[in-house]
Design a protein that fits this description.
Shape: globular
Radius of gyration: 24 Å
CATH architecture of the largest domain: 3-Layer(aba) Sandwich
Number of domains: 2
CATH class of the largest domain: Alpha Beta
Structural class: alpha/beta
Largest sheet: 7 strands, mixed
Bound molecules: adenosine-5'-diphosphate
Number of helices: 16
């Protein structure tokens, strides 16, 4: 196994110094249009996973800060809902322009916060976040109801599409900017105000983006607080003024959030985990399938993606060729300093996630017959000894019953699984409580259509495995979630309420 070493880091001083930016944002939240100190005195350190340095501190908000943020949002929403929809959209688009103008620093702070490589992850994610903000700004004119054929000629029957009120967003650390925008942009375009709780591991990139967006939005429409799940996330979900919760994260927390929201019958959108299959049939174009498996596993995000396809089913006729091809390509991935331009793959977010990967690798290594096709050992390069680095790892020899093949590891570990019969493979691919995404490579159209019909996944791709993006409606089946995001239907179905109106024009006018 070989991990390419990355040479000396880029210069990153001056106005694009992300550490200066995280120091500036330290100890602050954004409420009522301005960065401010939190009500709470308590703070905790934020660590750069690339070298374990402290990049700043963030407030450990609790009930008092939740109350202040929700109150600011409540007041702002009274006026915001009256701003014409297309004007709201135009403001959002100007806000997206403002972020784009500062994207150099935003993407560097994103890389510093998360340990995700600047070139392969943080830069495209920042671009996607800007794009998604613009898209929802442009869709604001679609916030329309319907007229319905009435039961009587004297009756006008129609529906409205209205804001819900104050929305709570709770986001994870793995793609924090894109997921932040997926929560706030459709909600704000639809006339709601929002309070977002950032992930404790990666608060600064979101706070910075929110600060820039706030230069174009009225105070209080977008508020950002920070803290831990039980202390800050839970009171936010339970706050009586919050009438909609949108969450991305783990299955266990998603279930808890749905339970907190249930007593007040508050709507919840959940984007949860996956244990997704990539499937290569015997007739597949391997020049597409081999790089596709690597992209599908999201190795260059250290496998920290809900859509990571960590179970790779390969037909036995092409098994050896595919496995060799994947190993060769993995050897070209450069693991290293996330902020260096040459790096393909950065660091795992935290000690907790790093140890989780190591634990699953112990399970794999202690299973008789397991083979490391690539990776499987921590890098020995001293330059990588300070951070949470683990190489892209591809292994085989495990049965589907192994915990490595059952659990969402959220690390850079995928398992190859040979198969002979299509029916058996589909049954195995579906043998998981999750149903998020699935990828297939084949030239056989009829097989592809059969797979689309039988695979239990909400996001299905054939001969490619692009990451979710703007205008692609995305959401899971089974235990992978509730609802859809990233497209018009998310704004219309998840961030709006509706009235059904019946007007009988037969009543005579009075006093005319
Ligand atoms: P991950 O495993 O990716 O860290 P989590 O589901 O643990 O995902 O966390 C995602 C987000 O949910 C984070 O912002 C976290 O603080 C928040 N969170 C965790 N536990 C709770 C909880 N009990 N209530 C509300 N939010 C929570």
């Amino acid at each position: 196994m070989r991990v390419k070493e990355v040479p000396t880091p880029d210069a990153r001083s001056g106005e694009n110094d992300p550490r200066a930016e995280t120091r500036r944002l330290s100890g602050l939240i954004l409420v009522d249009g301005a960065l401010r100190k939190a009500e709470t005195e308590a703070q905790f350190d934020v660590i750069h996973p690339g070298d374990l340095s402290v990049i700043g501190t963030t407030p450990r908000c609790g009930q008092a800060d939740v109350d202040a943020a929700v109150e600011a949002a409540r007041r702002a929403q009274i006026l915001w809902r009256k701003v014409p929809a297309r004007d709201r959209g135009r403001m959002l688009q100007k806000a997206a322009d403002a972020v784009e103008a500062r994207r150099d620093i935003v993407e560097r702070v994103l890389s510093l916060d998360t340990g995700n490589a600047l070139r392969t992850q943080a830069r495209p994610e920042t671009g996607s976040a800007v794009d998604l903000t613009r898209m929802f700004g442009g869709l604001a004119g679609e916030l329309k109801g319907e007229t319905v054929p009435a039961a009587s000629p004297n009756v006008l029957h129609y529906t409205t599409r209205d804001p819900i009120g104050v929305v709570a967003g709770i986001i994870p650390w793995n793609a924090p900017l894109f997921l932040f925008v997926a929560k706030i942009a459709p909600a704000i375009a639809a006339g709601n105000s929002v309070v977002v709780k950032t992930a404790e591991q990666a608060p600064f990139c979101v706070l910075l983006m929110a600060e820039i967006l706030n230069t174009e939005l009225p105070p209080g429409v977008l508020n950002v607080i920070s803290g831990f799940g039980e202390e800050c996330g839970r009171p936010l979900v339970e706050h009586p003024v919050v009438r909609k919760v949108t969450f991305t994260g783990s299955l266990a927390v998603g279930q808890a959030i749905a339970a907190y929201a249930a007593p007040k019958l508050c709507q919840v959108t959940l984007e949860l985990g996956g244990k997704n299959p990539s499937i290569v049939l015997a007739d597949a174009d391997l020049d597409l399938a081999i790089p596709g498996i690597i992209d599908g596993m999201r190795y260059t995000r250290q496998g920290q993606a809900c859509t990571a396809a960590s179970r790779v089913f390969i037909h036995e006729k092409v098994y050896d060729r595919v496995v060799e091809g994947v190993a060769k390509k993995l050897s070209e991935i450069r693991l290293g300093d996330p902020l260096h331009e040459a790096t393909d793959m950065g660091a795992i977010i935290s000690a907790e996630q790093f140890e989780r990967t190591l634990r699953y690798m112990e399970i794999a290594k202690s299973t008789p017959g397991v083979r490391m096709i690539f990776g499987g050992e921590q890098p020995t390069d001293p330059a990588l000894s300070k951070g949470y680095y683990y190489p892209p790892t591809f292994l085989d020899g495990l049965g589907l019953e192994s915990k490595v093949c059952q659990d969402e590891i959220f690390g850079p570990v995928a398992t190859a699984l040979p198969f002979r019969e299509f029916d058996d493979m589909i049954a195995q691919a579906n043998d998981t409580p999750y149903g998020l995404s699935a990828n297939l490579w084949t030239r056989d159209l009829s097989r592809a259509l059969e797979y689309i019909e039988r695979i239990e996944a909400g996001f299905v791709q054939v001969n490619q495995c692009a990451a979710p993006r703007s205008n692609v409606s995305y959401g899971g089946l089974k235990m992978s979630g509730l609802g859809k995001e990233y497209a018009l239907d998310s704004m219309l179905n998840h961030f709006c309420s509706s009235k059904t109106v019946l007007i009988n024009r037969g009543t005579p006018a009075v006093g005319v």
